[in-house]
């Protein structure tokens, strides 16, 4: 497909705006991570790495980091295994429920995370009677459980 120079420039501009929309806030947050002052001011008056040392010394932050790494590793392994097996089955075989399985993989994309997280939290605690734990964090979005004021053990 051949594009006119005007169309090509319009597409380049659209891509540049989209990338700026995504990356400029990340860059600003990264700069604020090194802010030397106690208040947020732009531009930062000084830069420091003091806050990283304080975060490492904080046992709560360390525990949260370790838990996040555990949850991420286990959830990734489970997703890779189940997703690969399901995709092989759906791609190679015709069976009852094939379309349902294929459609169910799009639910996390179609449903907002808040809806999924609240549904999982209520299912675990009220329907199944499972107390919130590392298992429930792996199975459902952790941040949504904490937003509801529920603590994991």
Q: What can be said about this structure in brief?
A:
By secondary structure, this protein is mainly alpha-helical.
Taking all residues together, what is the mean pLDDT? 80
Evaluate the radius of gyration: 22 Å
- Number of helix segments? 8
3D shape: flat
> SSE order, as H and E?
HHHHHHHH
* Unreliable segments of 5+ consecutive residues: 142-153
Task: Give a structural overview.
This protein has 153 residues and is mostly helical. The protein has a domain at 1-57. 71% of the residues lie in helices and 0% in strands. It contains eight helices and no strands. The chain starts with a helix and ends in a 6-residue tail after the last helix.
Task: Please describe the structure with a list of short key phrases separated by commas or semicolons.
153 residues, 8 helices, 0% strand, flat
């Amino acid at each position: 497909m051949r594009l006119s120079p005007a169309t090509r420039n319009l597409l380049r501009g659209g891509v540049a705006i989209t990338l700026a929309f995504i990356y400029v806030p990340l860059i600003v947050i990264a700069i604020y991570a090194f802010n030397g002052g106690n208040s947020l001011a732009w531009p930062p008056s000084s830069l420091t790495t003091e806050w990283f040392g304080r975060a490492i010394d904080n046992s709560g932050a360390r525990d949260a980091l370790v838990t996040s790494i555990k949850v991420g590793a286990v959830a990734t392994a489970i997703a890779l295994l189940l997703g690969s097996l399901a995709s092989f089955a759906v791609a190679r075989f015709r069976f009852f429920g094939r379309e349902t399985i294929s459609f169910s993989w799009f639910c996390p994309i179609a449903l907002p995370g808040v809806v999924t997280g609240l549904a999982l939290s209520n299912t675990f605690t009220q329907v199944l009677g499972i107390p919130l734990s590392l298992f429930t964090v792996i199975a459902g979005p952790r941040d949504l459980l904490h937003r509801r004021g529920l603590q994991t053990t």
